[in-house]
Design a protein that fits this description.
The protein is of the alpha/beta class. It is built from 29 helices and nine strands. It has three domains: 199 residues, no CATH class; 184 residues, Rossmann fold (3-Layer(aba) Sandwich), CATH 3.40.50; 129 residues, no CATH class.
Length: 608
């Protein structure tokens, strides 16, 4: 079954959803109050639809944030409408791990302000805000308006049904899927997948991304029976795949989850910022070349490694079949390590090192193959035991714009085209007594490049080379920063100081990182390419850990980064002085306004 049980408090989520189904969806009552007036009624749903969905505040209007806009849209609302809006937000937050429990409650409390209603801190729905199921992706927080719009539309459409029809839709997982997919296309985002999992966790995976679902179904398609009905949705396919895995291949596993080993490494690929869009691995499989680009510190190298390994594991599952795939795990991991070739490019790396160059051999100057011909030979001559099909090779060119890439590629420049794979060209220069050397790019060789946009070691890549690659931006992401900080927290700071205790200020810290990058974006001397990656900011855990190394008590009221009066504390000052400021000084060197620009950026970053 797809019910995620790793987090001990999952039962609270299920209990809250049961209350929501019984009291709110099947009746018109409240999720959090014992004796309110009608709350989840059609009139309130339509009222909120008019105020929110049909009257959007775009851009910087209404203060620019979701909370400030939502407050304007709720002006003059009845207490019951505010309660309905707050409970919609509570349902919206049930799944996510990317917002802290305290952060969820603050948003809900602001919505309830002035209504006369409060959340009972001893109730299950309140405690559920500290439970979580999964990370719903960047778009979940950046487009909260669309997530809430989906829930409003779902409620309006559901409440127009008769009680009998409503019960039938909610009881049947596939009838519910058909119903939710009738939502307006712009609202078919993460919340659609989340709602399906919440209401039927044994039928729908804990996956908030349509792109991820599509990737998993494609990667594990061999597990499906050949006669899969054509009208099956991707969710039905995933359930059949899970059933096959649990019964035939991973029967001894405590829990089968597509976001955990051994399954995650087969399929996972970073989607674009729209979780319904094309993923990196889909792009790489089609074009065979992909470049990950963005500011320094945005995990491009890590992403390239994960992408290369997933590509190889996916092909192993496809070509070996499920049984040989799971029976040869050690062999597969060995091939994953051997079949990824990593090259750190630099200004001194060129054609002679990559294609071929002259070398002195026994008093004779001869042409010797470089990295690419040797890699091609390995890719075309590999032999695996037990008749296993050969696996792809992936060449990772790290920091591709630190060398003259067109000159380095030479004859391979044209061979990168998808329709030129297998076509050979003669290399110039012939060794005495040997035929001309020919070069051909095999079908099973893929290329991933990484590129820091601000690195101007060489001229920008020419257009002819650019079209041989697909491109995937790796931007700074607030949610990714918080996830890295959460993952590092206990190791760097210590178990005595919980992440939740510091969460409120860490949320502000992430907002300050966003503000700093927004300021950099608007600066005439800098711009988008000079924004700072999340890995620079994530060093905050080290500085917090150092500052608390001799502390006997927790900082009062969670003041890990700022005092109660809003003054920056040592960890924030150290991060600026030792990491962010030196980087920005280098970016701004030679400009007339270096000191004033640094001062303005520091004021933006340190302000609570």
């Amino acid at each position: 079954m797809g019910r995620f049980t790793e987090h001990a408090a999952r039962e609270r989520i299920d209990e809250t959803v049961d209350l929501w189904r019984k009291c709110c969806l099947m009746a018109d009552g409240s999720l959090t109050q014992s004796q309110p007036a009608e709350t989840w009624c059609l009139a309130n749903a339509k009222d909120l639809e008019t105020r929110f969905t049909n009257s959007p505040l775009a851009g910087s209007a209404g203060g620019g944030t979701f909370a400030s806009k939502f407050e304007i849209q709720l002006e003059g609302a009845s207490p019951e409408l505010r309660l309905f809006a707050a409970e919609l937000l509570l349902v919206h937050f049930l799944f996510t791990s990317s917002v802290t429990g305290r952060g969820k409650i603050e948003v809900i409390d602001k919505t309830l302000a002035g209504s006369g209603y409060e959340l009972d801190t001893s109730s299950v729905p309140y405690k559920t805000m500290w439970s979580r199921i999964g990370h719903p992706g960047v778009g979940f927080n950046t487009r909260r308006d669309l997530q809430l719009g989906f829930l409003i539309d779902f409620t309006v459409r559901l409440k127009t049904l008769s009680l009998e029809d409503r019960e039938a839709v909610l009881a049947d997982p596939w009838a519910l899927e058909d119903f939710v997919r009738q939502a307006p296309s712009q609202n078919r985002r993460e919340m659609m997948h989340i709602l399906l999992h919440l209401l039927h966790p044994d039928s729908f995976e804990r996956i908030a991304s349509g792109a991820h679902k599509r990737e998993i179904a494609s990667a594990f398609a061999q597990l499906l029976d050949e006669e899969v009905p054509e009208d099956w949705s991707v969710d039905r396919k995933l359930l059949a795949i899970r059933t096959k895995l649990e019964n035939d291949f991973l029967a001894t596993a405590d829990y089968v989850d597509f976001y955990h080993a051994p399954l995650q490494g087969v399929w996972q690929s970073r989607p674009n910022r729209d979780s319904e869009g094309t993923t990196d691995i889909e792009s790489l499989e089609w074009k065979k070349q992909l470049i990950l680009y963005g500011p320094p510190g945005t995990s491009k190298t890590f992403t390239a490694k994960e992408l290369a390994e997933s590509l190889i594991r996916r092909e192993a599952l496809r070509s070996w079949g499920p049984r040989k795939f799971f029976d040869n795990k050690d062999l597969l991991e060995g091939r994953v390590n051997e079949n990824v070739e990593w090259v750190q490019l630099h200004p001194g790396y060129g054609y002679a090192e990559f294609i071929r160059g002259l070398r002195i051999e026994e008093d004779e100057t001869r042409y010797q193959p470089g990295l690419l011909p040797n890699l091609i030979e390995r890719a075309t001559t590999q032999a695996l035991p037990n008749g296993l099909h050969p696996l792809p090779f992936v060449l990772v060119l790290d920091e591709i714009n630190r060398t003259d890439l067109s000159a380095m590629l030479g004859e391979a420049f044209s061979l990168l085209e998808r329709d030129k794979r297998g076509f050979s060209v003669a290399l110039p220069g012939i060794n005495r007594g040997e035929p001309p050397t020919r070069l051909a790019m095999p079908e099973n060789l893929y290329v991933i490049g990484t590129m820091n946009e601000i690195d101007q070691s060489v001229e920008t890549l020419d257009f002819a080379l650019r079209r041989r690659f697909l491109w995937s931006e790796c931007p700074f992401e607030r949610d990714t920063l918080l996830e890295i900080v959460r993952a590092r927290w206990e190791g760097d700071v210590g178990a005595r100081f919980s992440f939740e205790d510091a969460a409120a200020q860490l949320e502000i810290f992430a907002d300050r990182a966003v503000s700093l990058n927004d300021a950099i974006l608007k600066m005439e001397d800098l711009g988008r390419a000079y924004q700072i990656g999340h890995t620079y900011f994530a060093d905050i855990t080290f500085f917090v850990g150092r500052s608390l190394s001799s502390a006997r008590q927790k900082p009062q009221k969670g003041t890990y980064l700022w005092t109660e009066g809003g003054k920056p504390k040592d960890p924030l000052i150290d991060l600026w002085a030792r990491s962010l400021k030196p980087l920005l000084e280098q970016y701004l060197s030679g400009t007339d306004a270096l000191e004033s620009s640094l001062s303005a950026l520091w004021m933006t970053f340190k302000s609570q």
